[in-house]
Specification:
Elements (H helix, E strand, L loop, with lengths): L1 H24 L4 H12 L3 H13 L8 H13 L5 H11 L3 H13 L3 H10 L3 H13 L3 H13 L7 H8 L1
Helix pairs in contact: 1-2, 2-3, 3-4, 3-5, 4-5, 5-6, 5-7, 6-7, 7-8, 8-9, 9-10
């Protein structure tokens, strides 16, 4: 029975990955969405996150529903997904709900998400706080944060101009 469960988990994860790729190619793919809904019904957090994205963007559904999308993202977050609160925060930020977005990013930062640090750097009010978040993400190996922080060091706006530090970040 334990081995059967492991095979089913592997099959579900493989299927979810295939459906994710299908949605990247065709965001309105009914087959991919149907497969993700099946995986979500058995508790797959990644599938729930993808369904939330599709619903929010109106991909393959009659009309986007923020509330319904956020229910899927909330459930994925409850199940321990590290990326769901980041996705939720990005969607909130895009719709102008910056305080709520910040809350979701901070929740993901508390779980160790470098993506959340990077996203927080984009919406905080203080340049110093933005640099702190970029630095935390860059220290965790987040490539876009490393480039962003290097740009800050090259421009010398929120940090002292230091081309040597910028080059180290980019290498």
């Amino acid at each position: 029975a334990q081995g059967d469960k492991a095979v089913l988990d592997w099959d579900r994860k493989g299927a979810v990955a295939a459906f994710e790729r299908a949605l990247l190619l065709d965001p309105a793919s009914k087959v991919a969405q149907r497969g993700l809904r099946r995986a979500a019904k058995v508790g797959d957090a990644t599938a729930m996150e993808w369904i939330g994205r599709c619903i929010f963007r109106g991909n393959g559904v009659p009309a986007s529903s923020e509330e319904k999308a956020f229910k899927y993202l909330a459930r994925a977050t409850e199940l321990g997904s590290l990326s769901a609160p980041v996705t939720w925060g990005v969607l909130l930020a895009r719709s102008g709900q910056l305080a709520s977005a910040r809350e979701k990013f901070e929740q993901a930062v508390a779980r160790g998400s470098s993506d959340a640090h990077y996203e927080l750097a984009k919406i905080v009010d203080s340049p110093e706080e933005a640099i702190e978040h970029l630095r935390a993400a860059a220290d965790a190996g987040h490539a876009r944060a490393m480039v962003g922080l290097a740009s800050e060091y090259l421009e010398g706006i929120a940090v002292p101009r230091d081309a040597a530090v910028a080059i180290r970040l980019l290498l």
